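Page 37, top half.
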Amino acid sequence: MSNRFRQVDRETLFLLPPSMDDWLPKEHLARFIVEIVAQLDLTAIKAAYAGRGSKAHHPETLLALLFYGYATGVFSSRKLERATYDSVAFRYIAANDHPDHDTIATFRKRFLPELTPLFVQILLIAREMGFLKLGKVSLDGTKIKANASKHRALSWKHACKLEAQLKAEVEELLRHAEEADRSDLPDGLDIPAELARREERLTAIAQAKAEIERRAAERYAEEQAAHEKKLAERQAKEQKSGKKARGKQPKPPVDGPRNKDQVNLTDEESRIMPVAGGGFEQCYNAQASVDVETMLIIEGHLSQNPNDKLEIKPAVEALDALPESLGTIDTLLADAGYYSETNVGHCLRHEILPYISDSRDTHNPTLKERFAAPGPLPEKADAVTKMRHRLKTPDGRALYAKRKCTVEPVFGIIKAVMGFRQFLLRGVECARGEWDLVCMAWNLKRLHALAA
């Protein structure tokens, strides 16, 4: 019976010292990430170390740990530290060393600005490997939860109501304190502690109200500028025609906060946003421009805007700033959430041909609708009309169909496979840096698959 099974022996020592090179298969992702990180220019990070005290962990080791962690769904610094003991791949990356979680967390937060330029360096390596040549990109966005609960959001109306309630309670507590010698206090009532707790809450409410007022002032300035523009256009139209313009006069915006204006007490820079499947969450809007041929993320940025209409401009500007050696972006695919005449103009000014749907396509179109040919293009068609015509041609439909099968799978894998559904860091700048980390981890994971 005993000859049926392999012998289990955990007691015999190795005759020769084990080699870490034997721990992982030759084509393992951890090996690939270590090799790529060794090619990155980390001069800015290395120069930040003063060289005093005990020797620090090498930036290449910590960076490779973060890249591999984000690529495999291990984001917490404590879990990363534990993985250097439990996981062969993490132990290989750390060279059998064990950086503690404080070191990993401090490195991630301290060097987020220095990690951002590494995004382009990885793209250049992909170009040298022969995988990347820019041309057509798909742009889309996804809502990712902030490190904050929507239940910690405070609206202007509720803040004013709560502030009045707390002030009334403070007055009542002070009255109890004055009458303490003449009347019995309720059992367990600690007046100094209750006063301190209410003063702390009043301070937090005052800060929240100040932030809501600041945002309201910014909104009013934008709405007032738009209102003045509409009035100027209306007046110019009346002067040109010599007649009074039809329709109602544009209403001026109302200054000040609105009852439903709110701010989150945990991460005040996050925003309440609608999410897929219905409902609202405290989120950031993560954007990615994905190469159609390789599914590599070419540009990624983070926004506080709930919808995507304002994201074309920063995306095309970032794409235009990429090194010439990577190639030239000539086509951009985006869904109806990005459509506007202004966004079409942004693309054309950067010499990028836009394919932006002006409406949501219906599911299960008829055979006639699928193969209908567009009518002739008018001679003096504007940019939007030309784009609509392009989208209706067979070539345009075939090209636009690639949008859904390039950028959306990237978000699906990032959330469902890599497991990144919520930011660990708070504040928009830290969240932007963490989104850069996620995009770089995806690119390394994708490059490894392409190389295989």
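Page 37, bottom half:
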Amino acid sequence: MTRAARTLCETKLDAGVFTLRAVDPVADVELVHGWMNDPEVARYWELAQPVERIGAYLRQQISSGHSTPYLGCLDGAPMSYWELYRADLDPLANHYAAKPRDAGVHLLLGPAETRGRGLGAALLRAVSAFQLDSDPYAERVIAEPDITNVRSVRTFERAGFRMIRQLDLPDKRAAFMVRERISAPEDAHGPEPTVATGAAR
């Protein structure tokens, strides 16, 4: 596969050139398995599983029809894992007031040395902008990090997301974060009610 066919969202950062490429569930499984089994990552992703289970998880993401897993690379070196998805087609849409074409994002920084450097916010800004640029009908990008993951919530805020409310999901209490295509004041019709039943990641 050519480089042009494999890479997306090329962005020049102080740390290097960031790109996304689609995950290969065979070639990349060991790498993703190692990251998922890092205790700091496993605390929130809850995917500290054998390599075979991680391979099955990646294949499930690819075949879902609405979610695509990517590796984020700096100067060609993989350093982050991303799931970019249609939130309005995800089970999550049963548990918040979804808008048509809502985009969703999950991410983790893999190598420990990439964390705590401010990279996450820069990467999120680039990737969420890419999601909105890729779909002119999407009005916003949403995310639902664990409310106890203070570092993650602050990273989303620095990337231009705002926390609308908390959601009680089956596996966590989440911060419902939104980055809108055009910044707007709080919903003119008033806030949505807090939803007390949840969804998958």
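Margin note: Residues 1-5, 183-201 have pLDDT under 50 and may be disordered.
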